[in-house]
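Quick one before lunch.
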Amino acid sequence: MGFEFTMDSFNKVLEDISKNFIFYAPRRIPGKGAFSDTDVVVYQEVEGFGQIELDEKSRFSPKEVINPITQTLFYFNENGYTEPETNNKGIIIFCRPCDANSFKRLDEIFLNNGPFKDSYYESLRRKVKIFVIECVQGFENCFCVSMGTNRFDDYDAFIRVAEDRITCDVKDNLLPAFVKHGISAEMRPDFISENAVKVAIPDQVNKTIFTHEMWREYSERCIACGRCTVVCPTCTCFTMQDIFYEDNHKCGERRRVWASCMIDGFTEVAGGHDFRPDKGMRMRFKAMHKIYDFRKRFGYNMCVGCGRCDDVCPEYISFSNCINKVSALSREVNG
Ligand code: SF4
Ligand code: SF4
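Model of the iron/sulfur cluster complex:
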């Protein structure tokens, strides 16, 4: 159902809904960018629509709302353990179609990739409603159209912002708040149909790609900082930490903390052996996971083409170029 709002009337909708929901959206944090006097756009809690950054791609993705950077799984002492209390409120995430599509990828990894569902992820995920912000222009380095993630139809609300008006298509049981404050309006969602960056995904990946010398370039250029994986909406690797409290060593907590396949030590095992010591091997692992291994298992590509990895790499390594190289080599080898 379609509605139109002024900024004020839309904020009244949010005010009504906020009794039962927390809102997360891209938000500009002044002065907290990588360089002095620069800002950063991150996913954070917002209270009103005016706090949402609409003009710039967020540096970090919304994945951290349901897959926190650091998450305490339980507290323990010598007698047992307790899980942290959770907030009963639902979660509304305002995001672009590519990021909305990334949640399906996270679901595959945390819920459908083994005999057990990840209950910590599931307890946050089931509270989520997705409000898609229309994206018809895209941003630098985006290649969502090539990845087929420029569209997202399974939204709870779809939002278009034009000058001082907001129009929405709402599918959800939050409808009463929209009916109360909005006026009925025609609304047909629109999606970006072309990006400046285009990527060709190889249909058939020849096995020789895995040992090809193309990966050597990354051994020389990559500095293993892990930025590309931290900003990626579909990267899910984590490590575990048991923290023992200083004042009572029998008490503590178990946390899971984001990790990265691109950094030193990630594949090191007991005895000191490292399965992927070389940075080119790590790039190969990451790239082929995004456009090959995941697809073999779940039937579609993991990468959603948000371009954040290209945005943040301090060595100007382009993931979209890397995919195109794999495709060109595959075509060459397959004939
Ligand atoms: S690999 Fe790069 S472009 Fe693809 S989803 Fe991750 S950050 Fe976005
Ligand atoms: S951001 Fe660039 S330099 Fe850092 S790990 Fe990723 S590819 Fe390597």
